[in-house]
Amino acid sequence: MVKLWAVRGATTVLKDDPAAVVGATEELLLKLLQINGINATDIVSIIFTVTHDIQSEFPAVAARKIGLVDTPLICTQEIPKPGSLPLCIRILMHFYTELAKEEVKSVYLHDAINLRPDLTSSV
Q1: Residue 92 near residue 107, CB atoms below 8 Å
Q2: pLDDT surpassing 50 at residue 121
Q3: Is 75 a catalytic residue?
Q4: Which of 26, 27, 78, 96 is catalytic?
Q5: What residue numbers bound the domain in which 69 lies?
Q6: Are β-strands 88-97 and 3-12 bridged in parallel, bridged antiparallel, or unpaired?
Q7: Is 115 helix (H, G, I), strand (E, B) or coil?
Q8: End-to-end Cα distance, the chain
Q9: Taking the alpha carbons of 34, 40, 44, 47 in that order, is the dihedral positive or negative?
Q10: Could you say which of 26, 27, 96, 116 is catalytic?
Q11: What is the CATH number of the domain that holds 113?
């Protein structure tokens, strides 16, 4: 049976640079799609967040670059909490799948692995 689930992911960039933001976001999106078997037509929407130190480009540009042209996307900023992981891009993707909820795999890359080390061992 097909259900609506959400999956999370996060990555970091070394500096706030448009190419770095798009490249890191593209890497994260492709990994999320691959390990969860998600096709573009399965995606309902994607929310992207960035930390306050990323301002050079919208992460959604990466989604458009990989062909998600009909997918509703939005970018927003994380709460600037002191001590939080800098230069971080997060994703919350809603999608239809036949996977059971416990089979949906989140993806944390680069320094974002530290956000959820419990979810990164199988990625």
Answers
A1: no
A2: no
A3: yes
A4: 78
A5: 3-119
A6: antiparallel
A7: helix
A8: 25
A9: positive
A10: 116
A11: 3.30.1330.40
CA–CA distance, 18 with 77 (Å, rounded to integer) = 16
Residue of 57, 75, 96, 98 marked catalytic: 75
Active site residue 88: no
Token couple for 21: 């933001």
- Check whether 8 has a pLDDT greater than 50: yes
> Which residue bears the tokens 């190419």?
19
Q: pLDDT, tens digit, for every residue of 48-75?
A: 999 999 999 999 999 999 999 999 999 9
Predicted TM-score of the model (pTM): 0.94
Give the E-state strand segments of the chain in sequence order: 3-12, 43-50, 73-77, 88-97, 107-108
In the structure, what pLDDT confidence band is assigned to residue 120 with cuts at 50, 70 and 90?
Answer: low
Active site residue 96: no
- Residue 102 annotated to the active site: no
78 or 121: which leads in pLDDT:
78
Tally of domains in the chain: 1
